[in-house]
Design goal:
The complex is a heterodimer of chains A (300) and B (368).
Chain A: H1 8-16, E1 21-25, E2 28-34, H2 39-46, E3 60-65, E4 77-82, E5 91-92, H3 96-111, E6 116-125, E7 128-133, H4 140-148, E8 153-156, E9 159-162, E10 169-170, E11 176-179, H5 180-189, E12 199-202, E13 205-210, H6 214-218, E14 225-234, E15 241-244, H7 247-255, H8 261-264, H9 266-277, E16 280-286, H10 289-299
Parallel strand pairs in A: 2-3, 7-14, 14-16
Antiparallel strand pairs in A: 1-2, 3-4, 4-5, 6-7, 6-8, 6-9, 9-10, 11-13, 12-13, 15-16
Helix pairs in contact in A: 4-10, 7-9
Chain B: H1 2-7, H2 17-29, H3 33-42, H4 51-82, E1 90-92, H5 93-99, E2 112-116, H6 122-131, E3 134-135, H7 141-150, E4 157-159, E5 165-169, H8 183-189, E6 191-193, E7 205-207, H9 210-223, H10 233-246, H11 250-262, H12 266-280, H13 286-293, H14 299-313, H15 323-340, H16 343-362
Helix pairs in contact in B: 3-4, 9-10, 9-11, 10-12, 11-13, 14-15
Classes of the chains: A alpha+beta (300), B alpha/beta (368).
Chain lengths: 300, 368
């Protein structure tokens, strides 16, 4: 059963009840409660493909809380609570969805040290995955969004999860936050791309969330193997440039960009080494999405 | 449930999934998840647990062992930086437990390196560290004064590249406490720790004497109450571990009450022993209990503390916070502040702090 199967009344009931709404998001189980009514239609739109879960152990317990009475008229705010505590300052009330997404990022980044977490987008065809590690602003999410509208399956756009036991990539399909300018480019590239509302002046600028494809979510339990390492870099007006990268370079770029490379110590070293060995590594400079996607099609 | 997990980790494989779901949350909040993970893996019980639980425990262990590596390295750097200055250097709390391989070190997350040096050594040590790449955050004049005139440590230092916090102490409780212990007493009783590795830096390090170490962790428990976090159960667990470990020597138990008198920490010991016995099932010799009973407060105060302390010490159900627990935390925070500072100074400090906060709020803020 997926979230779309719930009626609005059902969903509201779950969100406001003690049991909460329990969703499976990649390998994680989330329990969400909320007293912010405005989040419900957004969940119905952007979270509709996620499976409801009856797992008893939930990895993250989140509560989205609206303002107390005296705040309702004067600068209303929204606060995300993790296990009853607020990891960050409240946000303006209109930023409920970003608050939820950042709260989940915070939980994953801090608590999931049983996995190696690369700062990378990952897409796959069958078992073969492209890993796209990049710094913020290098167009990783945008390229990832374009690829998933070109026949690739979404594994992740932010946390590339690597299982230490065998180096497999675990899918964690989530909403993809896209910055304002890139939204138009994506809509031109893939008219079927489905965006949520735009949130203005968040701490990451104006952004809208791309709904993850239902098929990708349905295949969340199917791991993939790293086959290509692509280091994307978006540059306004740049000509397309796909260059091989030496394994040493690739190793450094993956390791220094991971969320918890140091925390995992020796096992992270082995995992990244193995990943680089099993991949063809390239850097990709691009400005136009169609050309970038076509170049990757030829390569793979 | 959390107490049972700490007292009898071998019973955990029988825990229901519902209970695990809650235990993971409260243990994490009490900073004890790593500890529970360490106990379970020591007893080879991890493979009897549900996989989703094991993931959380392994993640917690991974983080703890990483912090221990990072902060041990920070200590190594500190010792090299201070080597030719050769100050007496005493390790406190987490880094001491870890370096001396004491029982509370297992699975214990520590966030900073706590060091104690004689008061006269503060200035040269601070100066040397500032020359060697450690930096101090820019503090307002008031905050700097607060640290230096009233506290037991100087403003935290951080290395420019490594960003680990180093807290340099000259005492174990704030100087504004009615009767702070004499630093010289702590130093003269401290003991040297042998280095395991042959490549250890030339500067030797010491730790507090067993009795003093217990008293320090208890002082920390009672003096450092926080309005939101309450009393740190973790500190009581540390103290109970240490008492159990050092208590194998009968001498320790006779010295403990005497030492509490010498360091003016009678009341912290009284409460610490009381709640370690009640909550963590610590057993202590009858003679020690009799000696410590002399440090008890008046009967009505004790009754009130018996209600407040467990409320403030135990983590709450994260989904159902209780008003009386919040009240207990707040009252014990006030009490801690009262112990740390004379009332007029507290008033002055709180007034200043609320003024500073008000100014902050009125200032135009940049959006987050």
């Amino acid at each position: 059963m997926i979230l779309a199967n719930l009626t609005t009344a059902d969903l509201t009931e779950r969100l406001t009840s003690r049991a909460g709404l329990a969703l499976g998001i990649g390998p994680f189980h989330l329990r969400l409660t909320s007293d912010v009514a405005a989040i419900t239609p957004l969940l119905q739109q952007l979270y509709r493909h996620y499976p409801l879960t009856d797992q008893v152990i939930r990895d993250f317990h989140l509560h989205l809380s609206g303002s107390a009475l005296h705040r309702r008229w004067l600068r209303p705010q929204v606060q995300l609570l993790v296990d009853g505590r607020a990891p960050f300052e409240p946000l303006p009330a209109a930023h409920h969805l970003p608050a939820l997404e950042w709260g989940m990022n915070w939980c994953i980044a801090l608590r999931c040290n049983h996995l190696l977490m690369l700062h990378a987008a990952v897409v796959a065809r069958g078992e073969h995955a492209i890993v796209l590690p990049a710094w913020p602003g290098h167009g990783k999410s945008t390229l990832c969004a374009a690829l998933i509208h070109s026949g690739w399956r979404l594994l992740s756009d932010e946390f590339g999860l690597v299982r230490p036991a065998d180096g497999a990539l675990l899918p964690l399909p989530r909403l993809i936050p896209i910055k304002n300018a890139a939204v138009t480019a994506l809509q031109t590239f893939a008219p079927s791309a489905e965006f949520g509302p735009t949130f203005y002046a968040t701490r990451k600028g104006d952004l809208a969330h791309l709904c993850p494809p239902g098929e990708s979510i349905a295949q969340s339990d199917q791991i993939a193997r790293p086959r290509w390492l692509i280091f994307p870099r978006w540059q306004a007006g740049a000509a397309l440039n796909l260059q091989p990268v030496s394994p040493t370079q690739a190793f450094l770029r993956v390791a220094t960009n991971a969320f918890n490379y140091e925390t995992l110590g020796g096992s992270a070293f082995t995992l990244v080494t193995e990943m680089v060995r099993s991949c063809n590594c390239y850097s990709l400079t691009y400005s136009a999405l169609p050309a970038a996607v076509a170049a990757l099609e030829t390569l793979t | 449930m959390l107490l049972n997990a700490l007292r009898q980790p071998h019973g955990l494989p029988k825990l229901s999934l519902e209970d695990w779901d809650l235990l993971l949350r409260v243990a994490r909040r009490s900073r004890l998840l790593g500890r529970i993970a360490a106990d379970l893996s020591q007893q080879n019980l991890l493979d009897q647990l549900p996989p989703s639980v094991v993931n959380h425990l392994q993640a917690a262990q991974q983080l703890v062992s990483h912090r221990q590596t990072v902060l041990s390295w920070e200590l190594n750097r500190l010792r090299w930086a201070l080597a030719d200055l050769n100050p007496p250097l005493i390790l406190l709390k987490g880094i001491a437990y870890h370096h001396a391989q004491l029982p509370p070190a297992r699975g214990r997350n520590f966030v900073d390196v706590d060091l104690l040096v004689p008061p006269a050594w503060i200035a040269p040590v601070e100066q040397r560290l500032l020359e060697r790449g450690w930096v101090q955050p820019k503090l307002s004049r008031y905050d700097d004064h607060y640290y230096r005139a009233w506290m037991h440590e100087i403003p935290p230092l951080r290395h420019r590249e490594r960003d680990n916090e180093v807290d340099l102490h000259h005492n174990i409780v704030p100087l504004t406490t009615r009767q702070p212990p004499e630093a010289a007493l702590l130093l003269s009783n401290s003991v040297a720790v042998a280095d395991l590795s042959a490549e250890a830096p030339p500067l030797p390090v010491r730790i507090l004497a067993p009795t003093d170490m217990v008293l320090h962790s208890l002082a920390h428990l009672w003096f450092d109450a926080q309005p939101d976090e309450g009393l740190r159960l973790r500190d009581l667990v540390d103290a109970a571990d240490l008492m159990r470990y050092f208590g194998h020597e009968a001498e320790f138990w006779t010295q403990l009450p005497q030492r509490a008198v010498a360091l003016h920490l009678e009341r912290p010991l009284f409460y610490g022993l009381r709640y370690a016995q009640r909550l963590l099932y610590l057993s202590a010799p009858a003679a020690t209990c009799r000696a410590v009973a002399k440090f008890a407060p008046s009967y009505p105060v004790l009754r009130v503390m018996d209600i407040l302390v467990p409320l403030a010490l135990m983590p709450e159900h994260p989904d159902f916070p209780r008003h009386r627990a919040a009240l207990a935390r707040w009252l014990l925070y006030i009490r801690a502040h009262w112990l740390r500072m004379p009332p007029l100074l507290t008033l002055r400090h709180l007034l200043y702090k609320s003024w500073a906060r008000l100014v902050q709020q009125v200032k135009p803020k940049t959006p987050v």
